[in-house]
Amino acid sequence: MTERFEVLVAEDDADMRTLVADCLRKEGYTVKEVPSGAELLIWIAMTRRSDGVTNLPDLIVSDIRMPSMSGLQMLRVIREAHWPTPVILMTAFGDSATRQAAEALGAVLLDKPLQMATLREHARRLLAAPRPGVVSGVEPSP
Predict the structure, then answer these.
(1) Whose CA is closest to 7, among 116, 122, 123, 102?
(2) Higher pLDDT residue, 6 or 134?
(3) Pick from 47-56, 83-92, 116-125: least confident
(4) Burial of 31 (C-beta count, 10 Å sphere; 0-12/13-18/19+)
(5) CB burial class (10 A; 0-12, 13-18, 19+) of residue 2?
(6) What pTM value is reported for the model?
(7) What mean pLDDT comes out for the span 27-42?
(8) Which of 33, 55, 59, 135 is the most exposed place for a label (fewest CB within 10 A)?
(9) Ordered structural domains, the chain, with CATH
């Protein structure tokens, strides 16, 4: 039996969120959906176990422009917490500064309109790569 990866999708546009989530579900991933970066962080915080370890998703896919917290702001928060979760950011406004900021934080930036084959390819590649700081499900220390 293959490992079932969990992907967290943050996108404020409900149609786009459903499209991305369905694409990833067809790949066999378990997908959770949230409408903003802030809600993504809340969802992650709510998964903290009684022993203090947070059950991080295996992959985060997020829009950049969302209300309350952008995808880049969310990415900064998770990197400052030393979470090694790979991140794919999506944007219709991929200027060079945004691209550089995303890459500096270790994210893949995909342009909208999103090609589902490209999303699937990046998700497969990121999920297959070893994640630094993750040993037997132990959360890295801040």
Answers:
(1) 123
(2) 6
(3) 47-56
(4) buried
(5) exposed
(6) 0.88
(7) 94
(8) 135
(9) 6-128 (3.40.50.2300)
